Write the structure tokens for this entry.
Amino acid sequence: MNIMLVAGEASGDLHGAALCKALRERAPAARLYGMGGARMAAAGMEVLEDLTARAGVGTTEAAAGVLPLYRAYRRLRARFSGPERPHALVLIDFPEFNLRLARAARRHRIPVVYFIPPQIWAWRGWRVHAMRRLLSLVLAVFPFEPPLYRRAGVPVAYVGHPLVDALANAPTRAAARARLGLAPDDVVLGLLPGSRHSEIERALPVMRDAVAAITAQRRHTRVLLALAPTVDGTHVECVLASAPAGGRTSRPPGGAGGLGGSPEPPKVQMSRATYDVMRAADVVIATSGTVTLEAALLGTPMVVCYKVSRLTACMIRSLVRVPWMSLVNIVAGRAVVPELFQDDATTEALADEAGRLLDDASARDTQRAAFRELAGGLGEPGVGTRAAGLILGAARRAS
């Protein structure tokens, strides 16, 4: 049995790896191949294409990657005929690319299963019409998704969110701090600047300047930065070492600006152990994305910021159907964590919000209480096993 899986981003690679592992356990003889990253490769999938380090955020950010995307599309589509034809195509997030691939698969009468489907409830709701024509099954990860798809006539099954499984073995706070060389009583601020090159370029300078302002007032604060597997550590170091925006660091929050010049660049400890950073931190500053949901499920208070190109920002504002950008607030249905988007994501605003959380234990506890509610609605453990069973069922019916 041949199963093609397609993921185009770091988060998709993470969830795809868990799915590959579950498929291997239930069908050891199945051949898994497709597009993904190092994690899916380690889980036993033959990686034909890897675009996880190239993924863009929006219109202008993705433009530079059009040629690699087109090459990957053609190579995957070529497998739809001949002896290596898949018995099922499994799509993981990455909708711009994956819905086009679904159209080609449908022409070849290959069942298409979508795991972590497009967020039609947030934006581009018209995609549901294409999904009704192209998909054999949607594997919904949020409890509010199945009714939306059923009303639109899209076959759907609720499996729960894969982070429920991914975080099952996350370290305790004490273990994470010990591994990172932190004392139990250290005040720790974590940075989660994203998994894409464009996110590092746009969001990290603001985070860096905000951290400089925060640590100018709170000199004993330790700063950690989580490096995604798709991010070049040398590039991150260069951004951290570069001059602040405008050649100076903005005032520290609370008016502590009379220091005789710009605060010293913050000392930042980098780590590839993302969950260790999240668990060890008292507060994190995170870019919007899956990482915000991960931090919430680990119980870490946060401020969310996001900066994109002006063209992408205009597109987002015109298409988004919900009043929030972070998954935490979207899933909770209310403003649980502060969000700073585009022009609102300034050094001063970010430093003020993060500094307030560091200083206010009750504000942190309020976020944690909301996170516990959120975690209770994301399904039971065994998400990968449930999803694998449904995928194998679709593949066997096509065999």
In short: The chain has 18 helices and 13 strands. The longest strand covers residues 2-7. The domain at 2-166+381-398 is CATH 3.40.50.2000 (Rossmann fold). The chain has two domains: 2-166+381-398, 173-375.
